[in-house]
Automatic annotation (TrEMBL):
The keyword Repeat does not apply. Its cofactor is Zn(2+); Fe cation. SUPFAM superfamilies: Metallo-dependent phosphatases, Purple acid phosphatase, N-terminal domain. Residues 163-361 form the Calcineurin-like phosphoesterase domain. This is Purple acid phosphatase. GO terms for molecular function: acid phosphatase activity; metal ion binding. It comes from Arabis nemorensis. The keyword Zinc applies. Residues 1-29 form the signal peptide. CDD domains: MPP_PAPs. Keywords: Glycoprotein, Hydrolase, Iron, Metal-binding, Signal, Zinc. Residues 387-444 form the Purple acid phosphatase C-terminal domain. It catalyses: a phosphate monoester + H2O = an alcohol + phosphate. Belongs to the metallophosphoesterase superfamily. Purple acid phosphatase family.
Length: 470
């Protein structure tokens, strides 16, 4: 009996040890990066910086930017500003290696904000483009003409590879410039940017100095004129300032930036959806009403059934305020929207949610928190293979600086977090796999600070954690 008892005790201790070990693993969070950076104040680049230079020539178009102009990716909206005079609303465009030129006619507007009057802001949709084609386009027709180019996406379909860049909370500091430079020089070339809100931070200046909207437009033109940036609005787009009688939220953003919201049945430019190659992208508005019966709620409820994963396997959601965030900054701000919409995200197997707002980086496990019903007390996030991965990428480098304080201990659902500026790349390979990498500004262009192979939730919904990696 004696030896058997000793064996039982040994087995018991072994099992106990394993249980305790797994308990510790379960209770501890993921990784808080040990990367040590030099903490410096983030400062806006002065207005006479070369990145803000006004293009030479009379009434030269400036702040040129493009975005997708329809649901399918066969239209582009070209926008630009002329400062001295109205100039032409026309865009001339042509296919590479073709001498046949097309013309599209846009519209222009101006706006006033407190003591600021904008230049002439032009928006011109160009439609019926061919997929997967390089187009050149020209603006400033008849005055100072400027030429740019872009590629249309491949035809919407399940196995067309496509690579997105991710940038958030960019602003216009020296760090913002480093972020944009790193994105441009990343050897994995992004073909379009999913921008998760907070563009210029002009509202940080007295009277929301809208000249800083202009300088931001000139700063990012080197990317936005050549590839579409898919816009999400953040709190810094509100520009709501009743103290100076500016009470129409989003006034500068609405005049300057376009989204193809009507094409997806939305009634406001702040929430909409597009398809691009293999992806279905839903953009939500953290600062517009989203409760039951509101226009955004009604739209989103009708939107999910439209997603056909056989056509667009990858379901991506963009928003500004994150639902899962373990930094001290903006803690719980996304909670009410999470309570409203998270069950839909799990039911519809959203692959990934990208948010900004918190000026740092964080990636979650696949988790959900949808069991709570007021009386049952079940209110902790749990691992859920039908749930999205939540990524906070508000680390573009704006003048408010880094969010460095984190909640401790790191929550179980947080897989990786680091307070550094950077950008990310989400590279869809086919219907089952996408490779994701986050790049911190301090590293070389090819270096990744955090990576993950995504397995599509509809076509290949297996656990992506390292022990299950395939
Ligand atoms: Fe924000």
């Amino acid at each position: 009996m004696g030896p058997v008892r000793r064996f039982d005790l040994f087995s018991f201790l072994l099992v106990l040890g394993l249980v305790l070990n797994s308990f510790v693993l379960f209770c501890n969070g993921g990784q808080t990066s040990s990367f040590v950076r030099k903490v410096e104040k983030t400062v806006d680049m002065p207005l006479d910086s070369d990145v803000f230079r006004v293009p030479p020539g009379y009434n030269a178009p400036q702040q040129v930017h493009i975005t997708q102009g329809d649901v399918e990716g066969k239209a582009v909206i070209v926008s630009w500003v002329t400062q001295e005079a109205l100039g032409s609303n026309t865009v001339i465009y042509w296919k590479e290696n073709s001498s046949k030129k097309y013309k599209a006619q846009g519209k222009s507007n101006t706006y006033k904000y407190y003591n600021y009057t904008s230049g002439y802001i032009h928006h011109c949709p160009i439609r019926n483009l061919e997929y997967d084609t390089k187009y050149y386009y020209m603006v400033g027709v008849g005055q100072t003409e400027r030429k740019f180019w872009f590629f249309t996406p491949p035809e919407v379909g399940p196995d067309v590879p496509y690579t997105f860049g991710l940038i958030g909370d960019l602003g216009q500091t020296f760090d913002s410039n480093i972020t944009l430079t790193h994105y441009e020089n990343n050897p994995t070339k992004g073909q379009a940017v999913m921008f998760v809100g907070d563009l210029s931070y002009a509202d940080q200046y007295p009277n929301h100095d809208n000249n800083r909207w202009d300088s931001w437009g000139r700063f990012v033109e080197r990317s936005t004129a050549y590839q579409p940036w898919i816009w999400t609005v953040g709190n810094h787009e509100l520009d709501f300032a009743p103290e100076i009688k500016e009470t129409r939220p989003f006034k500068p953003f609405k005049h300057r930036y376009r989204t193809p919201y009507r094409s997806s049945g939305s009634t406001e430019p702040f929430w909409y959806s597009i398809k691009r190659g293999p992806a279905y992208i839903i953009v939500l508005a953290s600062y517009s009403a989203y409760g039951k019966y509101t226009p955004q709620y009604t739209w989103l409820e009708e939107e999910f059934p439209k997603v056909n994963r056989t056509e667009t396997p990858w379901l991506i959601v963009l928003m500004h305020s994150p639902w899962y965030n373990s930094y001290d900054y903006h803690y719980m701000e996304g909670e009410t929207m999470r309570v409203m919409y998270e069950p839909w995200f799990v039911k519809n197997k959203v692959d990934v949610v990208f948010a900004g707002h918190v000026h740092a980086y964080e990636r979650s496990e696949r988790i959900s928190n949808i069991a709570y019903n007021i009386v049952n007390g079940i209110c902790a996030p749990v691992k859920d293979q039908s749930a999205p991965v939540y990524i906070t990428i508000g680390d573009g480098g704006n003048l408010e600086g880094l969010a460095t304080k984190m909640t401790e201990p790191q929550p179980e659902y947080s897989a990786f977090r680091e307070a550094s500026f950077g950008h990310a790349i989400f590279s869809i390979k086919n219907r089952t796999h996408a490779y994701y990498g986050w790049h911190r500004n301090q590293d070389g262009y090819a270096v990744k600070g955090d990576t993950m192979w995504f397995h599509n939730r509809f076509w290949h919904p297996i656990d992506e954690s390292p022990s299950f990696d395939s």
